[in-house]
Target: Cytochrome P450
Amino acid sequence: MYRISRATTDYIKRYTITPAGHCETFLTIKNVPRPRSLPILGTKLDFFLAGRGTMLHEYIDARHKLLGSIFCEKLNGNTDLVFISDPTVMKTLFLNREGKYPAHILPDPWVLYEKLYGFKRGLFFMDGEEWLNNRRIMNKHLLRENTESWLEGPIKRTIDNFIAKWKGRAANGCVVLDIESELYKLSTDVIIKVLLGTNSSTFESRHYEELVTIFSNSVKKIFQTTTKLYGLPLNLCQRLNLKVWTDFKESVDSSVFLARKIVNEILLGRHETNGLIKKLSDENMDDETIRKIAADFVIAAGDTTAYTTLWTLLMLFENGEVLKELRRKDGLYVKYVIKESMRLYPVAPFLTRILPKDCFLGPYKLKQGTPIVASIYTSGRDEQNFSNANVFLPYRWDKNDPRKENLSNHVPSASLPFALGARSCIGKKIAMIQLMEVIQQVSNNFQLKFNNIKNIRPITSQVLVPNKHIELCLTLRNYNEKE
Ligand code: HEM
Model:
């Protein structure tokens, strides 16, 4: 099922395939549709006008609408990027074309930081055999069947504490919260407790709370400062020591320092713990590799899970009927609510892979090294993949729900919030346990009211985030309230 533009269909008619199945001439990257561009400048101006990348998801969505499900654009650099949004082509990429060591495009500021300071990062930044060996060990403890049985303990305990604190704060009436910071802190706390396990008293002090607050603020700053560097000449900013670069560098320095400090403390007391660090240590993973991988987890966990929680709560606030249904039902409905919110607001709106060898993708023969970008935001909102695509309808994920009959289009593989294949998110089970627990408990225990959400829109700031600061007015739910 290739949804290709009219221009591509014409090419296909022109380039025939012989009965023996041999392609006489095939389509190449030169035939991939591309937007009109200016000499020398290319489409750089369009890109700048679209907010230097902050509206990239909408910019690319508009391109797909114009050019079809496969198109090519250089964006701000000199390399052709091939954008795809067809679910079949995306599946082919992740399951058959990415090779043994799937490679993705790393954010430029991070690459420069690593080069300048010789600092080695975790799983997301590894490649080749190093990545595969470590990934296999991580898969065993985080993704295999039944890993939920050890993950649920530390995660649910952390969320119970979080909800108890919120209840205490809202005990005397409405309390206004900086919801982003609250959720960042929660996600950081959850991942530290996963590293630590359930049978330890390490970090049970007031200082721990302060540490989590300082750490999550500093991680939040990394994402803000990276976004400011979008589209700027990075090497020049660094050589001139401009504030955009030094702000980025300082936020990375302090986040990495603190993340390693946390991991070091767990490593020191590992024999009393039963969490992920103890498990990796028992696999004979060396301490430096544990430090790299675990410190990155603490950094990676914050924004993705925090913003997915925030988008889901916003969707529930705006869709009162769904919130009522969630409070009435237990079990899997909360999972459908989260899947639906990730379909509309995938925190990673683009996924990238670099082709390991020459291969066909859709009708095009592409060369080794070609960067491919899967437009997850577009595929999740395409009417051909999901009927009533822009409406928040969690029941579309429930195959037993009779209302589903009205939704003729449903292509699950068009919504890939955690990616697919060997390099998909290693933290997806952690994230799903956390999301399901926190969304269900917040909905059951509190009334939700957000301030300042008129005309709220998503922007790309590394991940998909709201375009303005949001406050949550938290009130304890009156269980007798009529629903
Ligand atoms: C809602 C929450 C989350 C979402 C939507 C999400 C999404 C993703 C996606 C799409 C990728 C794949 C990137 C690619 O293919 O290039 C990824 C990779 C990764 N994620 Fe997550 N993530 C989430 C939570 C977490 C958490 C809680 C952790 C911490 C354990 C985590 C750690 C990682 C790591 C280390 C990788 C790199 C894996 C590798 O390269 O082998 N993620 N995530």
